[in-house]
Backbone:
């Protein structure tokens, strides 16, 4: 029951963020809003498929990979968002600490292979490595350049890093607990994720500018 | 048996003859209509084959396999045209929608022959629902092809990204419709409501932009 409530909350929030982003994309014609809107569209559709599947059918079939496909492609649009912002930022020398990212994501990929399929884990590893890399690199560039115009992009980098961090927390929590009540950390992390979605909107607004 | 090949021949024959006779621009649209019907025919073969390979019944295949197969098959003609002929960008949505219309037409005709044409209210909803579904899915792909990037490889990357949106949307529709009853009614209405909503947003956004 609590999982259904929490999934529905996330559905409503991601749906609202999707409509808001696409609305701004149609008015401002700015690509960043379109990319963020597409991220929310894919996340929302994956969530809707999952919620409806759980509501209509009792058993989870191995063939229900359609929501996973949707969520993986939502990460892809976050990556395109970072590439889009990166185009507007002059290159600075990357920090050597960035190499810790593939160490982390690779290690987590190996850990998750105990539970999940090889292909999906490798795709997630690749996407998350690239997202974390470009997001941290972007933050590093903003910090180095100290340019007021580029400081506006900082919040979007932070929100994207927060989202990816919460995704890893969610996946890790699901490996150790199958509880479906308020004591489950999975439920609370997912609620936090729903709250984080809302912060994408002001962060994107700042990044797009007036 | 629904004799889909026979239905395909009957529907495509007048379109082929018309395509030979009309000028260049309408002919292109008819060819995309034919491509949509062909994609529907091939999708039915591939979905049935994959369902038997995976050991799943057609009910499960309807919302787990068919959406992926159908959306990929609808995308292939557009990819071919994009890579080989490099058409004008503003023509792409029209091509995508003609493929969607062709696909929906053959699908609805096969449904009529299998299930009869007596219940007009149900068929009204089903006809518009299926048509709107394929148009909305085509619209998702158009966003990826037209607006996401300037370079071809990124356009294609964006199109594949939004292809999964079309697959999931299609999967949701098939899942609800397969269940029957109230769920099916909601399923049929989702694409219609989505189409009306997207069209309204577009009109309001444009009028706000003009003002």
Residues:
């Amino acid at each position: 029951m609590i999982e259904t409530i929490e999934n529905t909350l996330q559905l409503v929030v991601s749906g609202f963020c999707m409509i808001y982003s696409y609305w701004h994309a149609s008015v401002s014609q700015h690509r960043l809003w379109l990319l963020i809107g597409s991220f929310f569209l894919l996340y929302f559709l994956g969530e809707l498929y999952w919620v409806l599947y759980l509501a209509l059918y009792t058993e989870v079939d191995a063939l229900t990979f359609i929501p996973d496909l949707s969520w993986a492609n939502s990460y892809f649009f976050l990556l395109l968002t970072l590439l889009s912002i990166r185009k507007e930022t002059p290159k600075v020398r990357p920090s050597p600490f960035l190499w810790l990212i593939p160490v982390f994501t690779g290690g987590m990929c190996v850990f998750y292979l105990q539970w999940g399929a090889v292909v999906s884990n490798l795709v997630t590893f690749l996407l998350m490595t690239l997202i974390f890399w470009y997001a941290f690199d972007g933050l590093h560039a903003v910090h180095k350049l100290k340019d007021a115009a580029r400081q506006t992009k900082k919040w979007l980098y932070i929100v994207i890093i927060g989202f990816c961090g919460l995704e890893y927390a969610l996946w890790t929590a699901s490996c150790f607990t199958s509880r479906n009540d308020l004591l489950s950390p999975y439920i609370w992390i997912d609620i936090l994720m729903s709250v984080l979605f809302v912060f994408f909107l002001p962060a994107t607004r700042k990044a797009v500018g007036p | 048996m629904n004799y889909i090949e026979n239905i395909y021949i009957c529907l495509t024959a007048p379109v082929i003859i018309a395509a030979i006779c009309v000028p260049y621009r309408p002919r292109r649209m008819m060819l995309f209509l034919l491509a949509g019907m062909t994609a529907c025919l091939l999708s039915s073969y591939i979905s049935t084959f994959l369902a038997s390979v995976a050991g799943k019944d057609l009910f499960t295949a309807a919302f787990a396999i068919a959406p992926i197969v159908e959306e990929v098959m609808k995308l292939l003609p557009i990819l071919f045209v994009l890579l080989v002929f490099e058409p004008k960008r503003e023509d792409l949505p029209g091509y995508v929608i003609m493929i969607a219309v062709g696909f929906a037409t053959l699908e609805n005709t096969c449904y009529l022959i299998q299930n009869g044409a007596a219940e007009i209210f149900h068929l009204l909803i089903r006809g518009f629902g299926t048509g709107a579904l394929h148009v909305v899915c085509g619209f998702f792909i158009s966003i990826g092809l037209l607006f996401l990037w300037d370079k071809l490889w990124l356009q294609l990357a964006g199109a594949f990204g939004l292809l999964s949106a079309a697959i999931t949307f299609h999967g949701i529709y098939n899942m609800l419709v397969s269940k029957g009853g109230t769920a099916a009614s909601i399923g049929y209405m989702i694409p219609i409501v989505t189409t009306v909503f997207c069209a309204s947003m577009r009109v309001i956004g444009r009028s706000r932009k003009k003002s």
